[in-house]
Specification:
3 strands, 3 helices, Ybab, Chain: A
Length: 107
């Protein structure tokens, strides 16, 4: 009867490799930019892969209109759109790394 140890060692190596790849991916995400917009580009936002706002631009025409509620809603929508872009990239990469296994707790 063959010992299960080689299989366990192989699993540990694979887990370590996946951890290293994920760590590298997280570093790469910090430097990537994800754009979101709303109101026909009246509001544009750029997030990095850590969901931190790098840039926020509001059209002078939108500001001149003076509708605070509209501006707030468009800013939220633009940020949410960029956030979805970040999340989609993360899901895509995790799916690629895990071969589409859908491992619970990874996302």
């Amino acid at each position: 009867m063959e010992s299960p140890m080689p299989d366990m060692l192989s699993l540990f190596r694979q887990a370590q490799l996946m951890k290293d790849k994920m760590s590298q991916f997280q570093k790469e995400m910090e430097t990537q930019e994800f754009e979101g917009s709303a109101g026909g580009n009246a509001v544009n936002v750029i997030l990095n892969g850590k969901h931190e706002i790098q840039s926020l631009t509001i059209s002078p025409k939108l500001i001149a209109a003076g509708d605070q509620e509209q501006i707030e809603n468009l800013v939220k929508a633009a940020i949410n759109n960029a956030g979805r872009e970040v999340n989609n990239k993360v899901k895509e990469e995790v799916n690629r790394m895990t071969g589409g296994l859908g491992i619970p707790g990874l996302l």
